[in-house]
Amino acid sequence: xxxxxxxxxxxxxxxxxxxxxxxxxxxxxxxxxxxxxxxxxxxxxxxxxxxxxxxxxxxxxxxxxxxxxxxxxxxxxxxxxxxxxxxxxxxxxxxxxxxxxxxxxxxxxxxxxxxxxxxxxxxxxxxxxxxxxxxxxxxxxxxxxxxxxxxxxxxxxxxxxxxxxxxxxxxxxxxxxxxxxxxxxxxxxxxxxxxxxxxxxxxxxxxxxxxxxxxxxxxxxx
Length: 222
What we know:
The chain is of the alpha+beta class. It has helices spanning about 5-10, 20-25, 35-45, 55-65, 75-80, 90-95, 120-125, 130-145, 155-165, 180-185, 195-205, and strands at about 70-75, 100-105, 115-120, 175-180, 210, 215-220.
């Protein structure tokens, strides 16, 4: 039986239209780590307000992938520091102000030890695959962001690089995505995504990219 929250989420566009179908087509251990990250990035692109920045979105991604079946999550301080995020405290506050999660209060001296919170949108964690598999996907996302071409960049280019990797189609040398969807998922200004894509070209993360002015589709190759 599918909970009403999941049905409502699909009707409101919070989960990809093929979310359930993609899961059913996967082997018994569920979808790949890449597909899990793609699904969660797509969900966050719609569920979070447009003003939520890249730092908060990377934190939200780790929360969705590491939460318990009841929506509770504990992100260790070492993991947060390893993500090299700018203004992580403000980003957590943005997520709380948006009503997406509740951060449990901590003693001031323990504030740097990590994040303990509960996700307030039951749709995402009640319908997500097993916790261990999701944790592996969370680790995969961290590894992508730590590749030599990305790890020295600011948060927004790292989120964009992760998103492009999550949407890459296997051995296909070129992949296509709607530029508008990419802009929303990565909290990019529509006039700024060219600069960030060019930055990924400079680091060697991308070998080429182009945007069709008629369809609005972005193509790229690694």
